[in-house]
Amino acid sequence: MIEEIERIRLRRLRKSQKIRDLVSETSLNVSSLIQPIFVVDGEKIIEDIDSMPGIKRYSLDMLDDYIQELVENGIIAVLIFGIPKIKDEIGSEAYSKSGIIPRTIRRLKESFPELVVAADVCLCEYTTHGHCGIVENGIISNDKTLPLLSRAALTYAESGADIVAPSAMMDHQVLSIRNALDSEGFRDTIIMSYSAKYASSLYSPFREAAFSSPKFGNRKEYQMDIRNSKEALREIEMDIKEGADIVMVKPALPNLDIISQASSLYNVPIAAYSVSGEYSMIKFASMSGYLNEKDAVLEITTSIKRAGASIIITYYALQIAKWLKG
Ligand code: PBG
Ligand code: ZN
Description:
CATH superfamily: Aldolase class I
Number of domains: 1
Shape: globular
CATH topology: TIM Barrel
Largest sheet: 8 strands, parallel, barrel
CATH architecture: Alpha-Beta Barrel
Distance between the termini: 47 Å
Radius of gyration: 20 Å
Bound molecules: ligand PBG, zinc ion
CATH class: Alpha Beta
Structural class: alpha/beta
Helix content: 40-55%
Order of helices and strands: HHEEEHEHHEEEHEHEHHEHEHHEH
């Protein structure tokens, strides 16, 4: 018995790079990456984001060169976030036809018809209070928010978005958006739902980038509690029933268990969002010289893929594309 077991040598399959490549189970492809982009309403703006070195805010007139660079490096999809000039109580700029996101979609579809354009659907970047929905007596009203999210999604679909991505964590946002899209003839617009979106400290660099921090309270009444996994599966299950084509888990790294369970339980593509805090942790540690940026990013991104994500949304998308090209 002991002899039998001694014949097994797991190190045989690690002997050389070629052997390791031969037996590898997971590969990172540029075609599964989505690059998030911040588009700011205004002119002649290319701004550094202090919380996320290497990522910038672009005004629409300054965006083409960057998109060109993405396309040249093989990136096929972007996820756009808008930063409006004016915010109000009800996030009007999120669903106005002349808002920053509809204009960006039209422009991108004109200049880069092949690019897959996904648009985040939420109110927090557009409201003065910074919450993801309509505030009523200090509470975020689920059902008053739904029609506005649907209006935003419909406006983005009309502007040419391939994918709408509701991220407000309102109950039945997918159902409400699917109904709105279908009744206006947008049966083919894809819904990628932020299904299992946890209330996370790792969103804070994003909130600085998009000026979307809540002005009172936090988002724990609508985003999920990190202690729960059954709830995440329930969220995903509900979204699939409501018509989501792609379901997302977010953040990625603290929730690899959810990605893994979801990918074995459900027959839909799973997207994982490696969020701003995941980007900034690696970026700042490597800027200080204590991490090898490329090794750390490729390791972590591969682990997200291995867990079961078929799509990875990451601020490192362009950089990974360049690294993969060698
Ligand atoms: C909007 C939204 C947020 C993120 C994606 N969509 C911010 C939030 O919920 O506060 C976070 C993405 C990131 O941190 O990279 N609801
Ligand atoms: Zn939001």
